[in-house]
Amino acid sequence: MPDLHVILGATGAVGRALVAELSSRGHRVRAVSRNAEGPEAVRADISTPEGARAACAGASVVYQCAQPPLREWASRFPELTRSVLAGAEAAGAKLVMADNLYVYGPVGGPMTEGLPHRADFPKGRARAEVDRLILDAHRSGRVRAALGRASDYYGPHGIGTVLGPNLFAAAAAGKTVRWVGALDQPRTLSYLPDIAAGLATLGERDEADGRAWHLPAAEPLTGREFLDLVEARVDGPMKTAALTRGVQRLLGLFNPTVRGLSETWYQFDRPFIADDSEFRDAFGPVSVTPHADAVAATVDWFSARGGADDR
């Protein structure tokens, strides 16, 4: 019987893409979340060690794609990670963490995995603690572990991101499309199926263990370049606007989600580029989805739902 790969947070955007990717590679998959459905799905509360152990039982690899609610993200993520580590350890499973780029804080050039963790804001400090907990557990022999870091994502089911409701849902509904930040600064943007492919590779390869990796993504684009790709896919001209720092501060008085962008505004007003060459050198050749194809698939997914920004 094939080894069991367990995805925690399997109904989220990354988790859904990873279920599809692992299944396409022929792995036996268990999809875990609070509201999971289907023959291979398991409902579980992994916020407790007992729940996490039950969810991870029998696994050879556990992929941690679950997150606390946004408003409780910084305060609850470390404790959630402790529970997940307990589950993976009890199963004797390798743990692969779906990570992001918060830990570095503002940098002066492309981000590499060797940069110090200098984030000085709540979510960044929480991410740094989560990463420390996982890598300490690896070094102590409790679990084998790897971290896969990606930038802001987009793609089918990509709701919980600045590119979801503000951009793709708005474009599909014929509303004003708002790009967060400066339109002329290049950014690394990750496509969900590419994130899933990278995480699956980390789960399969022993040489991935014990460190963080930047997951492969297509080339950085400016906001204008990205919006041009979206407009080319929608039916008719598209009205666009930039959500500037001043507008963000004003809207943040009434919208806590927009207010939360203050912590990471450095990602939106200057180049924000992740160097993924170490992953490509270690596990290549790597194929990623061209932005034009990825944007088209994302527009089509949102359009099929009439621009609705729910799942």
Automatic annotation (TrEMBL):
Domain NAD-dependent epimerase/dehydratase residues, every copy: 6-208
Family annotation (Gene3D superfamilies): NAD(P)-binding Rossmann-like Domain (3.40.50.720)
TM segment ranges: none
InterPro entries hit by this protein: Epimerase_deHydtase (IPR001509), NAD(P)-bd_dom_sf (IPR036291), NAD(P)-dependent_oxidoreduct (IPR051783)
Highest taxon, organism lineage: Bacteria
Name this polypeptide is given: NAD-dependent epimerase/dehydratase family protein
